[in-house]
Design goal:
The protein is built from eleven helices and 13 strands. With about 350 residues, the protein is α/β, with parallel strands linked by helices. The protein folds into two domains: about 1-170 and about 325-344, Rossmann fold (3-Layer(aba) Sandwich), CATH 3.40.50.150; about 175-290, no CATH class. The strands form four sheets. Strands 3-2-1-4-5-7-6 form a seven-stranded mixed sheet, with no helix packed on it. Strands 8-13 form a two-stranded antiparallel ribbon. Helix 1 (about 10-20) links the parallel strand 1 and strand 2. The chain is globular, with a radius of gyration of 23 Å.
């Protein structure tokens, strides 16, 4: 297939095509970030870089030869974490550029006597009104997939494509399966974003469910306190159904502490906070942000795929990227239809 990838980033789509068994003849990429381009060209030197997507009418390509159009248009205006400017945000407005390019390719393919181009668009969880506008323009309804099914990360996204695909099966991958060292307190990571390079803190992590942390067991002699690490009492912790941690009851000379989950959360009773759980003092709760390799694993990107640039830039592009195994799963029925056509 000849593929045109808009908002290409570090070419997660190219990795997914390979995993799905789709042979790529030409891969055109539209991207502006020089660091993402460097990662792409280091891994896929044959990639044809086209530059600014808003200047697409100047691109010197055979539009009728494009078999697959893919992209995840910038989502800041749609995200519930943002200001909800939607299509008034100049970044989210770039969806209409994607739509215009899709229309143009179909027109050129029709002139050449070819079938309509296959397309895939990805975007964040958003209000129904915005969702319907995008669906109306594309002529298809999206499929909602949480990356947690194929990775150790909760990452909820919508996917529009003009072929049928189902939800992926749950691979049962847990966060403790992918970390390089130390331990974690939950089965799935919070969604990483482009600002993850800034690191996190306990308040943001536990109260806002943002910026995944790993915990470092630096001091075995934990001090026990009745207050939780971020100032929330244990009673509030359980009564308000906060994210699950396991706190260990003291035994003998061991004053207790806490541990991460190896499996499902244990059953918590209404008086657990009084009887058998404890917390550690804040100054003894050591934590770190995930490493770039751990973030690559969250996105199911090959280890060290992004190691051609600084760690800051690696975090940024991974936060902006796709969960590769979700995209590969979506491409799989397309790969099957291509192989059937070749056989015929």
């Amino acid at each position: 297939m000849n593929v045109l990838s808009l908002f290409d980033g570090m070419s997660c789509g190219r990795i997914a095509l390979e995993r799905a068994g789709i042979q790529v003849c030409k891969y055109y990429a539209s991207e502006l970030d020089k660091y993402a381009i460097k990662v792409t060209q280091s891994n896929w030197p044959e990639t044809i870089q086209l530059g600014d997507v808003t200047k697409w009418r100047e691109w010197d390509i055979d539009w009728s030869s494009i078999d697959l159009l893919i992209g995840g248009s910038p989502c800041q205006g749609f995200s519930f974490a943002g200001k909800q400017l939607a299509f008034d945000d100049p970044r989210s407005k770039l969806f209409f550029v994607y739509s215009d390019i899709l229309t143009h390719i179909d027109a050129e393919r029709d002139k050449a006597g070819k079938s309509e181009v296959k397309f895939l668009l990805e975007n964040v969880k958003m209000k129904k009104d915005y969702l319907e506008i995008i669906s109306d323009h594309l002529g298809v309804k999206p499929v909602f997939i949480n990356s947690a099914l194929v990775s150790a990360q909760n990452r909820q996204r919508y996917y529009w494509a003009n072929w049928d695909f189902e939800q992926p099966e749950d691979k049962g991958i847990r966060l403790n399966n992918i970390i390089e060292k130390d331990f974690v307190d939950r089965e799935k990571s919070h969604c990483i974003d482009a600002n993850y390079w800034k690191g996190g803190n306990l308040k943001s992590y536990f109260e806002k469910n943002r910026r995944q942390l790993a915990f470092v067991d630096r001091d075995k002699s934990y001090s026990i306190t009745s207050s939780y690490a971020n100032g929330v009492s244990l009673k509030q912790y359980f009564q308000q159904n906060r994210k699950q941690l396991v706190f260990l009851k003291p035994r003998g000379n061991n004053p207790g502490g806490f541990r991460g989950l190896d499996g499902k959360s244990p059953s918590i009773t209404s008086n657990s906070w009084e009887q058998n759980v404890f917390a550690v003092k804040k100054d003894l709760l050591h934590f770190r942000k995930l490493t770039p390799v751990e973030c690559e694993r969250l996105q199911t990107v090959p280890d060290n795929y992004t190691n051609h640039v600084s760690n800051t830039q690696r975090y940024k592009m991974l936060g902006n990227g796709w969960t590769v195994d979700v995209i590969a799963h979506i491409f799989t029925p397309l790969a099957s239809s291509i192989n059937c056509e070749r056989a015929a």
